[in-house]
Amino acid sequence: MAKRVVDEAALERRKKRRKRRLIAGFVVFLITALSVAAVLSVTVLFPVKTVKATGSKLYTEEQIVKSSGISEENNLFTLSAQAVTENLVRNLPYIDSVELKREIPDKITIVVKDASEYACFFADDVYYVISKGGRVINAYTEQPENTFLIVGCTAKCKVGQMIEFDGEDNKELVFSIAENLDNKNVFINKINVSDEYNITLTVEGRFNVILGSKINADKKIAQLSSMIESMEKDATGRIDLSIWTEDNRTGSFVAGDIE
């Protein structure tokens, strides 16, 4: 009787060992299969065969596809969106943003958004045109219409690359003020940041504005918008908001010609 119990226990242990070996073998097989599938997916499987482009009114689909650098040697999943974006903005600077849509088994669609001329910076005897995102997209001998001039700081400009201000503070200052003015539908002609405590603007082609420091700039610009709306359409002159505070929410206006 004791021997039978021992035999049954030994048999049970053998069954468990066999089961563990089977599970371990299956795990090894599964890992190997997944590894092979992963390798195949980035080497043999899913090569890019079809490339489409959409979203641009400035460039043709052929121009975008050719400038993207995508070829049949690329894999659908390992293709670098960053590399494609860099190729496109370098070769086609009026592209503002790029998105890649991947469709199994072999299709890539490049979705782009066109950049618009927003601001300009004068350097090297030319006006470098900058998009709203801060990319230099063109250069002209004269300032284009519907752009505002950035003055009072230095910057490096190269078409197809982001503008590099002499300090990140200047970049943030210029574009935050511009955004606040845009939000209030105030047309900008010029932003002068030569003195961060005495920022000046020209707006609507009719007003020189003394903004003062960047403190409460958004609220000062809201005040500016209200003042302009309350004036005659042909009014011109100087608006001083440098004395604006939370306790003194006013600005002064002196009629006259502007520079």
Concise summary:
Helix content is about 35%, strand content about 25%.
Characterize the structure shown.
The protein is of the alpha/beta class and 259 residues long. It is 35% helix and 27% strand. The strands form three sheets. Strands 6-5-4-7-10-11-12-13-14 form a nine-stranded mixed beta sheet, with helices on one face. A hairpin with a 5-residue loop joins strand 5 (126-130) and strand 6 (136-140). The chain starts with a helix and ends with a strand.
Descriptors:
Ubiquitin-like (UB roll); 5 helices; Rossmann fold; 3 domains; 9-stranded mixed sheet; 259 residues; alpha/beta
Report the C-alpha radius of gyration, rounded. Answer: 32 Å
Assign the CATH class of the largest domain.
Alpha Beta
Q: Order of strands in the sheet with the most strands?
A: 6-5-4-7-10-11-12-13-14
Helix proportion range: 25-40%
Total strand segments = 14
CATH fold name of the largest domain, please? Rossmann fold
Q: How many domains?
A: 3
Q: What characterizes the major β-sheet? A: 9 strands, mixed
Distance between the first and last residues' Cα: 114 Å
Low-confidence stretches: none
Query: Beta-strand percentage?
Result: 25-35%
Q: Provide the residue-averaged pLDDT.
A: 87
Order of helices and strands: HEHHEEEEEEEEHEEEHEE
Cα shape: elongated
CATH architecture of the largest domain: 3-Layer(aba) Sandwich
Number of helices: 5
Class from helix and strand fractions: alpha/beta
